[in-house]
Amino acid sequence: MCGNSKEDLAKYALMFLLLAFLATMTITKLADIDIWMHLKTGEYILKEKTIPKTDIFTYTVYGRPWLTHEWLFALISFLLYTVSGVNGLIIFKFLLCMAVFFVLFQILRNVFKADIYLSSFILTLTILLSQNGFEVRAQLVTFLFVSLLLFFLLRLKYQGKAGRKFLSFPVFLILLLFFLWANFHFGFFFGLLVLAIFLGGETIRWRIARFFPSSRLKGGNPLPEASYLCFLFALYVSSLFICLLNPATYHLLLLPFKFVFFVPPEAGLPLEFISEYHSIFHPSQQGVTIILYFKIVFLFTAVSFLVNWKNFDPTNFVLFAAFGILSSQAVRFIPLFAIVTAPLLTHNVQSIASKAKSYRLLRAFSLPSKITIVLFLLLIAVSGLIRGHNMGQGIWRKVGLGVFEQAFPIKALDFLEREGITGRIFNSFNLGGYIIGRGHKVFIDSRGDVCGKHLMEEWIEITTATGNFEQLINKYHLDYFVLEYPTTGSPSWGIHRYLHQNPAWGLIYWDDVALVYLRRAPQYEEIIKKNGYKFLGQAFTGWGRDDLPIDDLLNEMKEKLKEDPKCLKAHLFLGYLYHKMGKLENEIKEYQTGLSINPNSRIAALFHNELGTGYAYQGLIEEATKEYQEAIKLSWQYAEPYCNLGFLYEQSGQTNKAIEMYQKALKIKPDDTWAEYHLKKLKER
Q1: What is the pTM assigned to this prediction?
Q2: Is 401 left (phi over 0), alpha (psi -120 to 50) or beta?
């Protein structure tokens, strides 16, 4: 009895730790760029009592046909937002994610009879692998519905005739699920894909078992019957027709093909500007934590299929392969891969363990394994609660409510509205959703199927200041620009340089998120005179220039800090200025101040790198090394700290370490001539 009580206590403790870990991953500040557009869509539906069929958010393609495929999610999100605000949306996200993993838990425990420790370990991997999908987006509904569909199909498959008694209850619910799914999110396509794979895979198993009775392709579960296959076919056809019951009817069925498979030129999506559509091998995914998890889980699952070859199941393998390939081509689908793979991996591990000759050895390691799993869950749950989760590339997911202000141009829009600036805006791609949420029409937003290829090409021309971009600026009568800061080497530096150098435009506002440039038209002269920056524009295009007006820049930077003492970029830029002036103590103080304001900001790696350089100039090599290493830890895709650390190693005679650092820098930034020169010099010694 006492043993059972201890076991029950362990089970409850694991379940609590899993829930706590999930909470640290999902109860986080609102950061999704599209949520504001969803809220505005929901507001429109509620106010106008109709679903928009044409664009209402841009002035460039206003009135163009728009298939509002996430209308139900937009409406529910807006209703929830009006009642409970942003925090209500965050709790809604947590509850949806909790429902997803509760269903997966039921699959592992009730369908596959996995023990609580294996189930907890698999679910922990699944949560880690799904973390990029934990935003307030309609795809959360797809995650939930995919897990529910898998629960139904796997129970039906693995519990044989007993499981098929389950048929009388959920068939109507499955059809209802697809009806809701088709009105929530185009992810219903993945539900149809899962059904098609089950139908095809089970048909293969049935045919092989019928003609080759001795075949081992049984998957370790009861062989399918003809009636079972007929049922799957009827369910697939019924679900397909149910999906037609949406405002767009059959057009919605075509959307996934247009949106996912024919993106490159037809849909007009700017893939180079949307990282979630990049493959796992794209340079932008260098150092992203979830990519490492994906590779580990993919390899581990593939090996489990190989080891378990005697019970090879074509249905399970095709599910794994299909979602694995899909995720490798577009990282936004990795959470779906995790959800689909979790039951398959569990089944393989269970099958291998039950037939292993070394089963006694496995049992001998049972207690240490259980203790390890408990401690691992405890560690990541507590770490997530205290410090947050490192997503890579300088991005941290921390527990909290409210809005993640570093993701949105909140202060910039406050400034525009306070100054009464109206007219036509040109906006960075990622800022469009929030600007729409504030009630402004934009140049472009993330709806690639609406904006189209031609507008996308024009947007890219203006952003990169190439082609006929000046004619396009005049064509659209642009009055002001709201732009993100360009990353190092980004082609979007083009428009920044143009606006800084062109006297027809003036920089009137900047903060940690965005910069605002205003046309020097008569109606705006007073605003520019009052808020304009005369010298900062020169510095933004190149802090390394020797002709910068240091004193004037210093005055403008100090004025900015009086206005906004917590502006991280102001402290960073002020540190640059002090460095150019040779005031190293002041420089170091500014970087330390920036890190004290927010040690986990998206530019924390920049602060650590510059702080390391400040220490290096003072001869504090040990301190400099630590700062460069911290910069690398925070942002693995940032090449400069590798170069700087390599130079320190080179100066101290640690040639092998220096070569390693330069090679890593060049892997991130192949055109880094400085790293290339020093690497070549070391290799020629």
Answers
A1: 0.86
A2: beta
